[in-house]
């Protein structure tokens, strides 16, 4: 039996401990203690069993993430009351890949990963359309700078649509413990802002306006629903 199945069984037994009559509660507790002893599980292991991680492909593969990419992660993180870390890997042929890992209550990280993936796809399409609208004579570096600003504006526009889901203090503590246990060697990364001039600033407004086509609803009390599409 896998650790996840054992922990799930323990959680069911703990529910019986809380809800059952004295005799049922005592029997359930004995079974819990026996399972924990047999599989060398601590009370922390049981507490952390409700916390999970969901890893999805990042919107940008750079080791030094652009500002807009982190804005996208942050808005999803706040919408669903979870934490997020960036994971980088350099493949054998030198190519860099990046993933976003959402950490929190299992049902919420699953939805957060899905919503992030859909938003990343929509942002990629919106970025492409914006670049196509720019003059073909414009330098590539200028196009990239304006596209990055466009993406920042887009993410800020979507951010102002969300209602942040604030996790409970207990949830937050468990997430911290989960990260310390499973990812003890995390280091702070660096982001890069768009290399733009004052003439490029209108690109951010274009992004903000484009974000009006996105709708994102985060429910309350663990009942999250995401509705993405034209407003």
TrEMBL record:
InterPro entries: DUF2786, DUF7168, Phage_B3_Orf5. Signal peptide: none annotated. Pfam families: DUF2786, DUF7168. It comes from the Bacteria. Residues 5-42 form the DUF2786 domain. Residues 47-192 form the DUF7168 domain. This is DUF2786 domain-containing protein. It comes from Aeromonas media.
């Amino acid at each position: 039996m896998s650790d996840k199945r054992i922990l799930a069984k323990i959680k069911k037994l703990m529910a019986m401990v809380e809800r059952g009559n004295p005799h049922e509660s005592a029997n359930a507790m004995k079974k819990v203690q026996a399972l924990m002893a047999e599989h060398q599980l601590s009370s922390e292991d049981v507490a952390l069993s409700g916390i999970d991680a969901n890893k999805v492909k990042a919107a940008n593969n750079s080791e030094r993430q652009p500002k807009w990419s982190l804005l996208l992660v942050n808005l999803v993180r706040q919408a669903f009351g979870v934490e997020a870390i960036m994971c980088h890997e350099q493949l054998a042929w030198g190519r860099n890949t990046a993933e976003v890992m959402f950490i929190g209550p299992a049902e919420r990280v699953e939805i957060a990963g899905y919503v992030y993936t859909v938003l990343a796809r929509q942002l990629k399409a919106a970025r492409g359309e914006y670049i196509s609208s720019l003059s073909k004579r414009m330098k590539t570096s200028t196009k990239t700078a304006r596209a990055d600003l466009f993406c920042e504006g887009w993410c800020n526009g979507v951010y102002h649509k969300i209602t942040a889901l604030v996790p409970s203090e207990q949830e937050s503590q468990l997430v911290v413990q989960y990260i310390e246990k499973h990812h003890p060697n995390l280091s702070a990364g660096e982001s890069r802002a768009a290399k733009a001039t004052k003439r490029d600033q209108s690109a951010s407004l274009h992004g903000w306006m484009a974000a009006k086509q996105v709708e994102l609803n985060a429910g309350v009390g663990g009942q999250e629903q995401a509705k993405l599409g034209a407003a």
